[in-house]
Amino acid sequence: MILSGLLNYSKAAISMFFMGKLGKSALAGGSLAIGVANITGYSFISGLATGMDGIASQAFGARNGCLLSHTLQRTIVLLLILCMPITLLWYNFESVLIHSGQNPSISSIAITYLRFSIPTLLFQSLIHPIKIYLRSQKVTSPFTLSTAFSLAVHIPANYVAVYCLDLGLEGIALSGCLADFNIMMSLLVYLFFSGHLTVNSLWFWRDCASFRHYEDWSPIFSLALPSCASVCLEWWWYEIMIVFSGLLVNAPEAVATMGILIQMTALIYQFPISLNQAVSTRVGNELGADRPKQALMASVVALACAIFTGIVAMSFMIGMRNVWGGMFTSDQAIISLVASVLPVVGLCELGNCPQTTVCGVLRGCARPTLAAYINFGSFYGVGLPAALMLGFGVELGLLGLWLGLLAAQMVCFGIMVVALLRTDWEEQANRAYVLTCSYLGEEENETSKEEPAPPVVVVN
């Protein structure tokens, strides 16, 4: 999962690299567009998709293939419906940027990139649920291989679009769409030819009638909405800082610098998010199989690994402070600003890595609502006022915005650990039984709790 995460990150880093080659304005506009896309689109798609994480992993542990398949179906439908309003918003977002005080020239560049990125919404709506569906069954290599294939095509696609066809930022956006399309098609081909899904089980024609009833959607809605809130509250913070950086005196340099810093955090984030996904799957599998002690052990081991990862990440960022900016641009003002802020970004990882991992534990327990409350209180009750005061009140600028994030991450880390220590694992195993029992007869559930989960679930 770490390898697939790094490969997926490389796709965004390559796009940012080619934006930097187009100049400071293109880099600033592209960074702003990516921030807007994350706030208004990708965060919702990723967040709603994670709602199936707890259900799918517990269903696999309980050998409930029906629940596993139906969760995938409903999540895909939910995300496809969501794409419609997001598409309309992206296409008409320029006026919002201008009225929020953004530089008009940067806003114009950003909206161009945003409009050409619209097809990725459809592709991501399939990629995320399929990835979670496979990961809940401990199948991770298809996503890694599909991402590697996509990345191999992504580099020459950007080069041809920028230097041969002279498409500029539009070409970079279309290259990103092509990369996601390749991943989606690779996963679909794997699903059909591996036997994980059949045409009926994926497109669910025989089950469409049951979608009219709320009780069929209730489990996924009850977890998808708070999961979405939890993911969005954290994602939005980083993207809101890009928007705030556009209100600083040195807006072009600040926005471009923020985009480069976000690339560093995105690189490091692949390690805690991999721990997050792994522990979510493991905890869900163990609770679904009625093994609460193993779920506790997995959580403790994952937290220890996350703390170590945070220390390594901080050291890496501090060591790269004078190098990282030059990898994306030759503008000395941006390079100096990156070097001054990156050590604070590194300190943030001391809290970010553990809290991200504990979020995975809560999701595996099907408790995303608690994670949403913690994220909201930490990032917006503590971090946002601190960032505004330090960034604009004390006039520390970009450094002050990141110091606000540092405060938020540390508070979030502390509360998450307390929540983990107070978890009643026997109660969580009982909750998992109730969740999976709703899709199986009592006799089948009793059998499933005594037998180990099979390596692969085949749904017809």
Describe the overall structure.
83% of the residues lie in helices and 0% in strands. The chain has helices at 2-21, 24-61, 65-91, 94-99, 104-116, 119-135, 141-164, 168-194, 199-203, 214-245, 251-288, 292-319, 332-364, 368-393, 398-421, 425-437, 442-450. With 460 residues, the protein is mainly α. It contains 17 helices and no strands.
Summary keywords:
0% strand, mainly alpha, membrane, xenobiotic transmembrane transporter activity, globular, single chain, 460 residues, antiporter activity
Detail the topology: elements first, then pairings.
Elements: H1 2-21, H2 24-61, H3 65-91, H4 94-99, H5 104-116, H6 119-135, H7 141-164, H8 168-194, H9 199-203, H10 214-245, H11 251-288, H12 292-319, H13 332-364, H14 368-393, H15 398-421, H16 425-437, H17 442-450
Membrane topology: Multi-pass membrane protein
GO molecular function, one term: xenobiotic transmembrane transporter activity
Transmembrane segments: 26-50, 71-93, 105-127, 139-161, 181-205, 217-238, 254-275, 296-320, 332-350, 370-393, 399-421
